[in-house]
Fold:
Amino acid sequence: NPKMWSHPATVRNVATLRADGVRFVGPATGEMAESGEAGIGRMAEPLEIAAALAAMIGAAGQILVGRHVLVTSGPTHEPIDPVRYLANRSSGRQGHAIAAAAAAAGARVTLVSGPVAIPDPAGVTVVHVETALEMQDAVAKALPADVAVMTAAVADWRVAAERPSKMKKDGSGKPPALALTENPDILAGIGHDRKLRPRLVIGFAAETDDLIRHAGEKLKRKGADWIVANDVSPAGGVMGGTENTVHILSRDGSGGKVAVEDWPKLGKDAVAARLVERIARAIGEK
Ligand code: C5P
Structure:
């Protein structure tokens, strides 16, 4: 009914659903079932609904049906005391977009996400974690998987001894020393796992200098099949932004050499869709 569709609460709710990626078919404009009323609110014609569904399914291409895709996303928070933590600027946008694209392609998707401010993607099993150790645990529980895409910006270090109560200034003017300890490398753990290694293991490399060289080293060190490298120098606005310029490093070069594929600057959703296509092609060939 036009009164419902124009009501501010409905307008807000529709905007929220659209922002979450929900697609709408209709409503159409015309006469209402109630006599004498007209405007926006008619149900779309069944054939129009069927055509919209067919277009959506066709566009996504059910290329990952029957596959389990594991994705990590977001930052981790490493507690210092009950009120403070160490964190980083990852928004989770790229990882969440990959999880959503894999689900749209028909995969069963487990998304292990650190604390983010964006909604859970539709049609995905989401495991919410805070710390690197919790993320490692959730990843282990989610295996086996056909594909692992490790997008999370896992903290390299955690505080060695989390304080049980809030740290206080002691009046001396001297700051407390924070001893750190290294977190496990979740990607390397999975990449080198003899029993449960997914067929395709993909890592990310966010670097501010010497991108391709560092990413190439990661490919080997972490036992990954591909590294998606992106330049996160502050000028590029990638960290927390909506666009990404990535380079795909793989072992596809002649004689097992590292091959580099440069992608143009794309929205994070478009990077995700292209990556899912590349994944489907690769596991189809393996
Ligand atoms: O070594 P660096 O943190 O730059 O490597 C980035 C890649 O490794 C990403 O794919 C990230 O998700 C993964 N990683 C991880 N566990 C860590 C550190 C990084 O899975 N402790």
